[in-house]
Protein backbone atom coordinates (compact mmCIF):
# COMPACT_ATOMS: atom_id res chain seq x y z
CA UNK A 1 0.00 0.00 0.00
CA UNK A 2 1.56 3.32 -1.00
CA UNK A 3 1.45 6.43 1.16
CA UNK A 4 -1.32 8.11 -0.83
CA UNK A 5 -3.69 5.18 -0.58
CA UNK A 6 -2.80 4.70 3.08
CA UNK A 7 -3.64 8.36 3.75
CA UNK A 8 -6.88 7.88 1.83
CA UNK A 9 -7.88 4.83 3.89
CA UNK A 10 -7.15 6.71 7.10
CA UNK A 11 -9.21 9.67 5.84
CA UNK A 12 -12.07 7.34 4.87
CA UNK A 13 -11.91 5.57 8.21
CA UNK A 14 -11.87 8.88 10.08
CA UNK A 15 -14.79 10.07 7.94
CA UNK A 16 -16.65 6.91 8.85
CA UNK A 17 -16.20 7.54 12.56
CA UNK A 18 -17.02 11.20 12.41
CA UNK A 19 -20.01 10.82 10.06
CA UNK A 20 -20.53 7.82 12.18
CA UNK A 21 -23.28 5.79 13.67
CA UNK A 22 -25.14 8.66 15.31
CA UNK A 23 -27.41 7.87 18.24
CA UNK A 24 -31.13 8.50 18.05
CA UNK A 25 -31.34 11.86 19.75
CA UNK A 26 -34.26 13.08 21.78
CA UNK A 27 -34.99 16.03 24.03
CA UNK A 28 -37.49 15.60 26.85
CA UNK A 29 -39.14 18.89 27.69
CA UNK A 30 -41.94 18.85 30.26
CA UNK A 31 -44.64 16.62 28.76
CA UNK A 32 -43.14 16.90 25.32
CA UNK A 33 -40.41 14.87 23.69
CA UNK A 34 -38.69 16.01 20.51
CA UNK A 35 -37.12 13.00 18.80
CA UNK A 36 -34.52 12.59 16.03
CA UNK A 37 -34.35 16.11 14.65
CA UNK A 38 -32.44 16.31 11.35
CA UNK A 39 -32.05 18.55 8.35
CA UNK A 40 -30.91 18.22 4.78
CA UNK A 41 -27.73 19.95 3.69
CA UNK A 42 -28.38 23.07 1.61
CA UNK A 43 -26.75 24.05 -1.66
CA UNK A 44 -25.47 27.50 -0.77
CA UNK A 45 -27.78 29.96 0.96
CA UNK A 46 -30.14 31.06 -1.81
CA UNK A 47 -32.37 28.01 -1.65
CA UNK A 48 -34.48 27.24 1.42
CA UNK A 49 -33.71 24.15 3.52
CA UNK A 50 -35.95 21.73 5.42
CA UNK A 51 -35.70 20.21 8.90
CA UNK A 52 -37.66 17.29 10.31
CA UNK A 53 -38.41 15.66 13.68
CA UNK A 54 -41.01 13.77 15.68
CA UNK A 55 -42.82 15.41 18.60
CA UNK A 56 -44.60 13.34 21.27
CA UNK A 57 -46.98 14.75 23.80
CA UNK A 58 -46.96 12.52 26.90
CA UNK A 59 -49.13 14.92 28.91
CA UNK A 60 -52.87 15.17 29.42
CA UNK A 61 -53.47 18.46 27.61
CA UNK A 62 -53.14 19.50 23.98
CA UNK A 63 -50.16 21.70 23.23
CA UNK A 64 -49.44 23.57 20.01
CA UNK A 65 -46.22 24.26 18.16
CA UNK A 66 -46.65 27.95 17.39
CA UNK A 67 -43.22 29.02 16.18
CA UNK A 68 -39.77 27.96 15.02
CA UNK A 69 -36.58 29.98 14.80
CA UNK A 70 -32.89 29.41 14.25
CA UNK A 71 -29.81 31.59 13.99
CA UNK A 72 -29.07 29.94 10.62
CA UNK A 73 -32.29 31.25 9.09
CA UNK A 74 -33.76 34.71 8.71
CA UNK A 75 -37.23 33.25 8.43
CA UNK A 76 -38.43 29.83 9.58
CA UNK A 77 -41.94 28.38 9.38
CA UNK A 78 -43.74 25.06 9.65
CA UNK A 79 -44.89 24.10 6.15
CA UNK A 80 -47.20 21.42 4.91
CA UNK A 81 -47.05 19.63 1.56
CA UNK A 82 -50.35 18.65 -0.01
CA UNK A 83 -50.83 16.42 -3.05
CA UNK A 84 -53.97 16.72 -5.12
CA UNK A 85 -54.40 15.04 -8.53
CA UNK A 86 -50.63 14.53 -8.73
CA UNK A 87 -49.93 18.24 -8.11
CA UNK A 88 -47.94 19.11 -5.01
CA UNK A 89 -48.26 22.41 -3.22
CA UNK A 90 -46.67 23.74 -0.08
CA UNK A 91 -48.09 26.27 2.36
CA UNK A 92 -47.54 27.48 5.94
CA UNK A 93 -49.19 24.97 8.26
CA UNK A 94 -50.11 27.46 11.00
CA UNK A 95 -50.08 26.38 14.68
CA UNK A 96 -49.58 22.64 14.93
CA UNK A 97 -51.72 21.01 17.65
CA UNK A 98 -50.40 17.89 19.39
CA UNK A 99 -53.09 16.19 21.43
CA UNK A 100 -52.46 14.30 24.70
CA UNK A 101 -50.72 11.00 23.91
CA UNK A 102 -50.31 12.05 20.29
CA UNK A 103 -47.22 12.02 18.10
CA UNK A 104 -46.74 14.42 15.22
CA UNK A 105 -44.12 13.55 12.63
CA UNK A 106 -42.41 16.18 10.53
CA UNK A 107 -41.10 14.05 7.66
CA UNK A 108 -40.34 14.37 3.92
CA UNK A 109 -43.48 14.77 1.84
CA UNK A 110 -45.59 15.98 4.75
CA UNK A 111 -44.75 18.57 7.39
CA UNK A 112 -41.36 20.24 7.63
CA UNK A 113 -39.63 23.21 9.18
CA UNK A 114 -38.89 25.45 6.20
CA UNK A 115 -35.69 27.41 6.81
CA UNK A 116 -35.73 30.43 4.51
CA UNK A 117 -33.27 33.28 4.08
CA UNK A 118 -30.36 31.10 5.17
CA UNK A 119 -27.55 33.05 6.82
CA UNK A 120 -25.06 30.25 6.22
CA UNK A 121 -25.05 27.07 4.16
CA UNK A 122 -26.14 23.93 6.01
CA UNK A 123 -23.19 21.60 5.61
CA UNK A 124 -23.43 17.86 5.90
CA UNK A 125 -21.98 16.64 9.20
CA UNK A 126 -22.46 20.01 10.97
CA UNK A 127 -25.24 20.86 13.46
CA UNK A 128 -27.33 23.91 14.25
CA UNK A 129 -29.71 24.97 17.03
CA UNK A 130 -33.43 25.18 16.34
CA UNK A 131 -35.79 26.75 18.88
CA UNK A 132 -39.37 25.50 19.00
CA UNK A 133 -42.03 27.56 20.75
CA UNK A 134 -45.02 25.72 22.20
CA UNK A 135 -48.15 27.45 23.43
CA UNK A 136 -48.13 25.74 26.83
CA UNK A 137 -44.65 24.32 27.29
CA UNK A 138 -42.79 27.42 26.09
CA UNK A 139 -39.49 27.37 24.26
CA UNK A 140 -37.07 24.50 23.76
CA UNK A 141 -33.89 24.46 21.70
CA UNK A 142 -32.83 21.27 19.96
CA UNK A 143 -29.52 20.53 18.28
CA UNK A 144 -30.12 19.49 14.66
CA UNK A 145 -27.61 17.29 12.79
CA UNK A 146 -27.29 17.92 9.05
CA UNK A 147 -27.46 14.94 6.69
CA UNK A 148 -26.90 14.79 2.92
CA UNK A 149 -28.96 16.71 0.35
CA UNK A 150 -30.53 13.44 -0.75
CA UNK A 151 -31.29 12.06 2.72
CA UNK A 152 -34.89 10.92 3.11
CA UNK A 153 -34.71 9.76 6.71
CA UNK A 154 -32.53 10.52 9.73
CA UNK A 155 -29.36 8.47 9.40
CA UNK A 156 -29.00 5.98 12.21
CA UNK B 1 -39.77 -31.48 15.91
CA UNK B 2 -36.92 -29.26 14.73
CA UNK B 3 -37.48 -30.50 11.21
CA UNK B 4 -41.17 -29.74 11.44
CA UNK B 5 -40.45 -26.25 12.69
CA UNK B 6 -37.99 -25.79 9.84
CA UNK B 7 -40.59 -26.91 7.29
CA UNK B 8 -43.15 -24.58 8.79
CA UNK B 9 -40.61 -21.77 8.56
CA UNK B 10 -39.91 -22.54 4.91
CA UNK B 11 -43.63 -22.71 4.16
CA UNK B 12 -44.12 -19.42 5.96
CA UNK B 13 -41.36 -17.74 3.99
CA UNK B 14 -42.70 -19.12 0.73
CA UNK B 15 -46.15 -17.85 1.65
CA UNK B 16 -44.75 -14.44 2.46
CA UNK B 17 -42.88 -14.33 -0.83
CA UNK B 18 -45.99 -15.35 -2.76
CA UNK B 19 -48.03 -12.68 -0.96
CA UNK B 20 -45.42 -10.03 -1.74
CA UNK B 21 -45.29 -11.04 -5.41
CA UNK B 22 -49.07 -11.07 -5.59
CA UNK B 23 -49.31 -7.63 -3.97
CA UNK B 24 -46.73 -6.32 -6.45
CA UNK B 25 -48.57 -7.78 -9.43
CA UNK B 26 -51.89 -6.45 -8.09
CA UNK B 27 -50.63 -2.90 -7.87
CA UNK B 28 -48.50 -2.85 -11.04
CA UNK B 29 -50.46 -4.91 -13.58
CA UNK B 30 -53.49 -6.27 -11.78
CA UNK B 31 -56.85 -4.74 -10.90
CA UNK B 32 -55.18 -2.65 -8.17
CA UNK B 33 -53.13 -0.68 -10.73
CA UNK B 34 -53.89 2.93 -10.15
CA UNK B 35 -55.25 4.77 -13.14
CA UNK B 36 -52.82 7.59 -13.70
CA UNK B 37 -54.38 10.97 -13.17
CA UNK B 38 -53.38 12.51 -16.44
CA UNK B 39 -54.60 15.80 -17.74
CA UNK B 40 -54.21 14.42 -21.29
CA UNK B 41 -56.50 11.43 -21.89
CA UNK B 42 -54.33 8.40 -22.68
CA UNK B 43 -51.20 10.25 -21.61
CA UNK B 44 -48.71 12.49 -23.40
CA UNK B 45 -48.14 12.09 -27.18
CA UNK B 46 -45.02 10.27 -28.46
CA UNK B 47 -41.75 12.06 -27.67
CA UNK B 48 -40.94 12.27 -31.40
CA UNK B 49 -43.69 14.90 -31.70
CA UNK B 50 -42.08 17.22 -29.11
CA UNK B 51 -40.91 20.38 -30.86
CA UNK B 52 -39.72 22.56 -27.99
CA UNK B 53 -36.06 23.39 -27.34
CA UNK B 54 -34.57 23.03 -23.85
CA UNK B 55 -31.08 23.51 -22.42
CA UNK B 56 -29.55 20.73 -20.35
CA UNK B 57 -27.51 21.38 -17.20
CA UNK B 58 -24.31 21.27 -19.23
CA UNK B 59 -25.59 24.03 -21.50
CA UNK B 60 -26.46 21.89 -24.54
CA UNK B 61 -29.57 22.86 -26.55
CA UNK B 62 -31.75 19.84 -27.08
CA UNK B 63 -35.34 18.61 -27.46
CA UNK B 64 -37.32 15.85 -25.73
CA UNK B 65 -37.53 14.31 -29.25
CA UNK B 66 -33.83 13.47 -28.84
CA UNK B 67 -34.71 11.10 -25.98
CA UNK B 68 -36.21 8.64 -28.48
CA UNK B 69 -34.07 5.53 -28.85
CA UNK B 70 -33.70 4.98 -25.12
CA UNK B 71 -36.36 4.58 -22.42
CA UNK B 72 -37.14 7.82 -20.58
CA UNK B 73 -38.14 8.70 -17.05
CA UNK B 74 -39.35 12.33 -16.89
CA UNK B 75 -40.42 14.54 -14.03
CA UNK B 76 -40.95 18.22 -13.27
CA UNK B 77 -39.78 20.24 -10.27
CA UNK B 78 -37.61 23.16 -9.25
CA UNK B 79 -34.41 23.50 -7.29
CA UNK B 80 -35.72 26.00 -4.71
CA UNK B 81 -38.02 23.26 -3.46
CA UNK B 82 -36.72 22.03 -0.08
CA UNK B 83 -38.93 19.01 0.51
CA UNK B 84 -40.69 17.34 -2.42
CA UNK B 85 -37.99 17.68 -5.11
CA UNK B 86 -35.03 16.34 -3.09
CA UNK B 87 -37.31 13.52 -1.93
CA UNK B 88 -38.27 12.67 -5.53
CA UNK B 89 -34.65 12.90 -6.73
CA UNK B 90 -33.61 10.71 -3.83
CA UNK B 91 -36.36 8.18 -4.60
CA UNK B 92 -35.27 8.10 -8.26
CA UNK B 93 -31.63 7.65 -7.22
CA UNK B 94 -32.76 4.68 -5.09
CA UNK B 95 -34.75 3.17 -7.99
CA UNK B 96 -31.77 3.52 -10.36
CA UNK B 97 -29.46 1.93 -7.80
CA UNK B 98 -31.92 -0.95 -7.34
CA UNK B 99 -32.00 -1.50 -11.13
CA UNK B 100 -28.20 -1.24 -11.43
CA UNK B 101 -26.87 -2.13 -14.89
CA UNK B 102 -30.39 -2.81 -16.17
CA UNK B 103 -31.08 0.93 -16.14
CA UNK B 104 -27.82 2.06 -17.74
CA UNK B 105 -29.52 3.16 -20.99
CA UNK B 106 -32.37 5.13 -19.46
CA UNK B 107 -32.76 8.91 -19.92
CA UNK B 108 -33.61 10.52 -16.59
CA UNK B 109 -34.94 14.00 -17.30
CA UNK B 110 -35.66 16.59 -14.61
CA UNK B 111 -37.37 19.61 -16.21
CA UNK B 112 -37.61 22.76 -14.10
CA UNK B 113 -40.90 24.65 -13.84
CA UNK B 114 -38.99 27.64 -12.47
CA UNK B 115 -36.83 28.84 -15.41
CA UNK B 116 -36.54 32.28 -13.79
CA UNK B 117 -34.25 30.99 -11.01
CA UNK B 118 -33.17 27.65 -12.44
CA UNK B 119 -30.48 28.52 -14.94
CA UNK B 120 -28.39 25.71 -16.47
CA UNK B 121 -25.74 26.39 -13.79
CA UNK B 122 -28.33 26.22 -10.98
CA UNK B 123 -29.58 22.91 -12.38
CA UNK B 124 -25.99 21.61 -12.57
CA UNK B 125 -25.32 22.48 -8.90
CA UNK B 126 -28.46 20.62 -7.96
CA UNK B 127 -28.41 17.45 -10.07
CA UNK B 128 -24.75 16.88 -9.19
CA UNK B 129 -25.94 16.00 -5.69
CA UNK B 130 -27.94 13.01 -6.95
CA UNK B 131 -27.56 10.03 -9.33
CA UNK B 132 -25.19 10.80 -12.25
CA UNK B 133 -27.80 9.63 -14.78
CA UNK B 134 -30.14 12.52 -13.88
CA UNK B 135 -30.03 15.35 -16.43
CA UNK B 136 -31.52 18.73 -15.55
CA UNK B 137 -33.31 20.78 -18.21
CA UNK B 138 -34.26 24.44 -18.26
CA UNK B 139 -35.29 26.79 -21.05
CA UNK B 140 -36.99 30.01 -21.99
CA UNK B 141 -40.26 30.48 -20.04
CA UNK B 142 -42.40 29.92 -23.15
CA UNK B 143 -40.49 26.73 -24.01
CA UNK B 144 -41.00 25.42 -20.47
CA UNK B 145 -44.72 26.22 -20.76
CA UNK B 146 -44.89 24.38 -24.09
CA UNK B 147 -43.04 21.41 -22.56
CA UNK B 148 -45.38 21.17 -19.55
CA UNK B 149 -48.44 21.51 -21.81
CA UNK B 150 -47.11 18.83 -24.16
CA UNK B 151 -46.79 16.35 -21.27
CA UNK B 152 -49.93 17.52 -19.50
CA UNK B 153 -47.99 18.71 -16.44
CA UNK B 154 -49.34 21.55 -14.32
CA UNK B 155 -47.39 24.32 -12.64
CA UNK B 156 -48.23 27.63 -11.06
CA UNK B 157 -46.23 30.31 -9.31
CA UNK B 158 -47.39 31.13 -5.77
CA UNK B 159 -46.16 34.32 -4.12
CA UNK B 160 -44.97 33.96 -0.52
CA UNK B 161 -43.58 36.33 2.10
CA UNK B 162 -40.01 35.37 1.26
CA UNK B 163 -40.37 35.20 -2.54
CA UNK B 164 -42.32 32.55 -4.39
CA UNK B 165 -42.83 28.82 -4.66
CA UNK B 166 -44.09 26.63 -7.45
CA UNK B 167 -47.02 24.25 -7.24
CA UNK B 168 -46.34 21.51 -9.75
CA UNK B 169 -47.13 18.01 -11.00
CA UNK B 170 -44.88 15.62 -9.08
CA UNK B 171 -45.83 12.55 -11.12
CA UNK B 172 -43.01 10.70 -12.89
CA UNK B 173 -43.73 9.88 -16.57
CA UNK B 174 -42.32 6.74 -18.20
CA UNK B 175 -41.69 6.32 -21.94
CA UNK B 176 -40.37 3.27 -23.78
CA UNK B 177 -37.37 3.38 -26.12
CA UNK B 178 -39.69 4.12 -29.07
CA UNK B 179 -40.75 7.28 -27.23
CA UNK B 180 -44.30 6.11 -26.49
CA UNK B 181 -45.86 6.96 -23.13
CA UNK B 182 -46.24 3.83 -21.01
CA UNK B 183 -47.11 4.70 -17.40
CA UNK B 184 -46.61 7.00 -14.44
CA UNK B 185 -45.20 6.71 -10.95
CA UNK B 186 -46.99 8.75 -8.31
CA UNK B 187 -45.16 11.02 -5.91
CA UNK B 188 -43.89 8.95 -2.98
CA UNK B 189 -44.84 5.61 -4.52
CA UNK B 190 -43.08 2.65 -2.85
CA UNK B 191 -39.89 1.33 -4.43
CA UNK B 192 -41.46 -2.16 -4.71
CA UNK B 193 -44.03 -0.66 -7.09
CA UNK B 194 -41.84 1.89 -8.86
CA UNK B 195 -38.96 -0.41 -9.81
CA UNK B 196 -41.13 -3.01 -11.67
CA UNK B 197 -42.86 -0.15 -13.52
CA UNK B 198 -39.50 1.14 -14.75
CA UNK B 199 -38.36 -2.39 -15.61
CA UNK B 200 -41.33 -2.69 -17.98
CA UNK B 201 -40.03 0.13 -20.20
CA UNK B 202 -36.41 -1.10 -20.29
UniProtKB/TrEMBL annotation, chain A:
Gene3D superfamilies hit by this protein: PCu(A)C copper chaperone
Protein name, per record: Copper chaperone PCu(A)C
Lineage, broadest ranks: Bacteria, Pseudomonadati, Pseudomonadota, Alphaproteobacteria, Rhodospirillales
UniProt keyword terms in alphabetical order: Signal
Domain of life of the organism encoding this protein: Bacteria
Pfam families (UniProt xref): PCuAC
Signal sequence extent: 1-24
PANTHER family attached to this UniProt entry: BLR7088 PROTEIN, COPPER CHAPERONE PCU(A)C
From TrEMBL, chain B:
GO molecular function, one term: metal ion binding
Protein keywords: Copper, Disulfide bond, Metal-binding
S-S bonds: 81-85
Domain Thioredoxin: 43-202
Domain of life: Bacteria
Residues annotated for Cu cation binding in this entry: 81, 85, 168
Family: Belongs to the SCO1/2 family.
Protein name: Electron transport protein SCO1/SenC
Organism listed in the record: Oceanibaculum pacificum
Amino acid sequence: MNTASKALSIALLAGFFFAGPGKAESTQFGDLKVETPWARASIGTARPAAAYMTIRNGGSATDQLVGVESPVSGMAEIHKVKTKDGVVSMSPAGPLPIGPGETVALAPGGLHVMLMKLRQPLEKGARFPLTLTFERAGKVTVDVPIHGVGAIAPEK
Amino acid sequence: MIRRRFLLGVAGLAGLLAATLFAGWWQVDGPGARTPRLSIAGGPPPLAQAEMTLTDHEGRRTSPASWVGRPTLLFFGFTYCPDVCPTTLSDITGWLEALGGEARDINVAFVTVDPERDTAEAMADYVDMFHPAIVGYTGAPDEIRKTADFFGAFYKKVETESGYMMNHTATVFLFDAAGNFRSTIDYHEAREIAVPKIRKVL
